[in-house]
Amino acid sequence: EVQLQASGGGLVQPGGSLRLSCTASTVTLRYYAIGWHRQAPGKKREWIACINRSDDDRTYLDSVKGRFTASRDNAKNTAYLQMDSLKPEDAAVYHCVTEVNNIQYKGQGTLVTVSS
């Protein structure tokens, strides 16, 4: 079973930055694309970013383009989501996601709170 864990969330003021990390056990992330989702209370889950396995293509939700950057360090078996210029509407639980053998795995999320 693939186990993912997102970390790095916390409380940040509007305009601030956070870097989320996604680590995995039982799987080598370099072979898979990594996606990031978020879900705010009372709202639907929202896909926000994806980085391909070869680390040369990234896609983003329009509302985070230019503010969020997905990256990966295959040597550390870790993916990252750098979030800059955070807005109150970015507050949510963030999850990293991957697909292995046509099965999607979503790990435990990390809470991001954006408030002054």
Any overview of this molecule?
The chain is mostly beta strands and 116 residues long. It has strands at residues 3-7, 10-12, 18-25, 34-39, 46-51, 58-60, 68-73, 78-83, 92-100, 103-106, 110-114. The strands form 2 sheets. Strands 2, 4, 5, 6, 9, 10 and 11 form a 7-stranded mixed sheet that branches. It has a 4-stranded antiparallel sheet with strand order 1-3-8-7, with no helix packed on it. The protein is globular, with a radius of gyration of 13 Å. The termini are far apart. The mean pLDDT is 94.
What is the oligomeric state here?
Answer: single chain
Question: H/E series, N to C?
Answer: EEEEEEEEEEE
Question: Which residues sit in consecutive blocks of at least 5 with pLDDT less than 50?
Answer: none
Helix segment tally: 0
Cα distance spanning the termini: 40 Å
Beta-strand portion reads: over 45%
Shape: globular
